[in-house]
Amino acid sequence: MKEEFLELMKNLLGDNYNDFIKSYDNPPKRGVRSRINNNLKKEKLKFGINEYILLSDEKLGNSPIHHLGGIYLQEPSAMAPVNLVDINPSWNCLDMCASPGGKSGQVAERLIDGILVSNEIDKKRCQTLFQNMERMGYDNVIVTNNDPKDLTNNFKGFFDLIILDAPCSGEGMFRKDSEAISMWNLGNVDTCAKRDLDLLDYANIMLKTGGIIIYSTCTFNKYEDEFAITEFLKKHDYSVVKPNINVLKSGEKGLIDGAVRMYPHTSVGEGQFMCVIQKNEEIEATNKKGKFNKLESKELKLVNEFINENTTNLNLNLIKKNNQIYHLIKDINLDNLNVLSYGVRIGEIDKRFIPNHHLFKVFGNNFKLKLELKIDDPNVIKYLRGEQLDIELPKGYGVIMIDGLSLGGFKSSDGVLKNLYPKGLRNF
Looking at 93, 168, 218, 275, which residue is catalytic? Predict the structure, then answer.
C-alpha cells in the first residue's frame, strides 16, 4: 500500500494502526441478504432483518437461489447504513448513486406504498442495477440513468429519504480489490471530497423539510467522511441524527457525534463510514406530475385480455414508453430524464401482447397457473438453461414458484412448458 495512505491511517488510528495492518493478512468478509429459508452457512448480523455474514467461500453468484432473487450478495458493512434509521413504508425515497443496488434493495424491501427512485450515472452500471432490481422482483423501484444534478430539476423538495452512498477513494475495498489500491492517490481523495459536497448540495435541493439523508462511503480518510458532513452543515440547517444502537455496536463512534465508522480489524466487514442528517430548512416542494403516453384502445384490449385470462387481483396503471408497456408505480415527474425502467416492465405489443420477464418476476403470485418447485429440483437447472420442461399443466401462461418467489415465466401447451426465461440470463 502507498506510503501516503499508511500515514493517513497512522494519524487516524494511533495505537490501533498495527491491528489494522494485520487485518489485511485475513481474507475479506462476505455478506448476504437472505429472503427465503436456505442451508447457507451464515451468521446473523446485530443489525437488520435478514442480513448475515457468510461463513463459507461457496460461489453463489450463478446459483439457482441467486437467479430466484432469494439472496443478494452484499459486503457486510455496506448493509449497515440503511439500518441506521427506521424507514417509513410510505416514504418517497432516492438512492442517488445506486449501482449495483444493494442499498436500493434494502430500501425497497422496507417500502409498502412508498416509492424508490434508484439512480446511477454510468450507463453500463445502470443496466446492472436494473437487472438486480428485476431479479429481486421489486414492484416499487424506478431506475434512472442520470447525473444526480439533473434530477434536481424534477424533484425539488420531493423525497423523504435520500441515500447518498458517495463515490469515494475506496480505501475500505483494499482487502478485496487490489485495483483499488493501485488507483488510490491523495489527488483522488481531494477530488472525491469536493464531488461529495456537490452531491450533498443536490440532495439538499431534492429533500423535504424534515427529510433525512443517509450519507456513507467505503473509505476511511476524514476528508471524504466527517469533513464532508461538517462542511455541508456549515452551509445548511441540518441536525445529525442519533444512529441505531445496533449499528453502532457493530462499529465505533466516528470523529463527530452521530457518525459511525467500521474497520476491517474491529467490525463486521471491510469498512464503512456513515452518518444520518435531518433537514430543518424550509423548502417549497414542486409536485408536478409527469407526462406519460396512455395505451391506445386496441393495445389496452390486448393487455387486459392477457391479464384477465392469466392472473387474478392484478390492477395495473399502464403507460407506454419507447414501445414498452409499464406498470407505473406512482405518477411522478420523470420528464426529460433518462429512465431505464418506469416501474414494472409489463411487455410490448407486436400484433399481440408479448409479456416481459419483469412481469413474471414481480407478479408471480398473481398468476393463476403456477408450478411449485423446490430449489434443488432438477427442473430448476433445466429451466435456467433455457430448456423446455415436459410437464402436464393446463394451457396458458404461468410461473415457476419457489418458496413464494418467482423464478420466471413459461407458456404451457400440450404437455410442454415453453421456456420464457430470457436468453441473456441463461448462463448455466
Answer: 218
